[in-house]
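Margin note from the TA: students keep mixing up input and output lines. Inputs are the sequences; the output is the structure of the whole complex. Example:
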Amino acid sequence: MEYTFTLKFKLAESDSDRDAVVERLGAAGCTDALVGTGVSGLLALEFAREATSAQAALVSALQDVRAALPDALLVEAGPDLVGLTDAADLLGVSRQNMRKYLTSYPDAFPAPVHAGAGSIWHLASILQFLMQRGHDLTAPLVEVSEAAMQFNLAKEAPLMDRYGEQLRSLLGGHVA
Amino acid sequence: MTRSKHSKKEIEKVLRYAEALGWTIKARNGCGHAWGTLLCPDNSAECRCGEFCMTSIWSTPKNPDTHAQQLRRVVDHCSVRKMREAAAMLGPAPQDQE
């Protein structure tokens, strides 16, 4: 199965030569990724990777990038954190359509990760919601959104201290 | 245009499409994994395509068809281009409200 996903990295200062960075990625087997270097200090890779599972695809991609650029820091895996427009684009529906779900099912629609002028959700939670409503979604997208979410959660986990551990029981099953 | 041609015809086709829309293609002339770079004509404050305003083109991608599609998507998803098209069709672009 081919999985499409994005990994974004913050580059180390020593990796400022963009041509050299791209060559190392090519040598490490990332020629199934589109490499974007339009923002200085950042690196975006849009992979279209063949693998037996989404998890295997993301893990092997991260391993390849690590081998090429040991000092690059993962910023975000995608598709995971999305606004309504992003979710609509990924599903090929209109933004109005997505918004209608939000307003028509205020109780069942998943809670956002960030609520504000531009609310953000885990894509996996929106896809779950839609599947519960009988939408037939493509398996790779569902799988890849779950794998990307795990990457982003794992990336943040080291920030959690003992106080955070205590909070977990207080928050209980309240997480969306 | 005097740049060299990409040896994969499906990629060369996308490069021409991008050029016709004002994108710049910088060929590295035959060294290494990267064949060259695709540069967005609109890398400006209101442009939000960000990282992919500068995108590498592989000389031997794992799958040339997929690589061509990925490049095509970058060109078609350029937000400034989309805004211009929307503006041309609808008048002033609407504010995005959550």
